[in-house]
TrEMBL record:
The lineage of its organism: Bacteria, Bacillati, Bacillota, Bacilli, Bacillales. PANTHER family: TRANSCRIPTIONAL REGULATOR, MARR FAMILY (PTHR33164), TRANSCRIPTIONAL REGULATORY PROTEIN-RELATED (PTHR33164:SF94). Keywords: DNA-binding. It comes from Metabacillus halosaccharovorans. This is MarR family transcriptional regulator. Residues 1-142 form the HTH marR-type domain.
Amino acid sequence: MKSNEPNQLISDWMSLANIQIRVEHELESILQETHQLTLKEFYVLLFLSQAPNKKLKLQQLQNMVGLSQSAMSRLVSRFEAKGCGTLRRHVCVEDRRAIFTALTESGEKKLEEAIQTVHQTLQHSFADKGIQAELKRLLSQF
């Protein structure tokens, strides 16, 4: 790092965090408006789609999405309550205490549509001159 100013590293971190918050807010808004998905729900669909057999134990999923066990359980329950058929939960045969969450065909379709929206939103966000300038400034510090 080039700067010797003691608080520069913290300032740079806060600038980077601000960019992330702005982009996440934009993603959250457009996903809600276009697909009736929260960003966390999008992450659930995405991680399930990348998993073997398109299923994960609830504990694995909560670690990947960054939620507590109860918050992850509520998120999956809300997903199921929507009645859109994107997820299916079932008990693990080997360990009856574990619960698997699996992506359905309907969930895959919803994810494919949402991915297109996320790509467009990210392209738009990263094309923003203010974000580009701030990222360029931050990267030049290292």
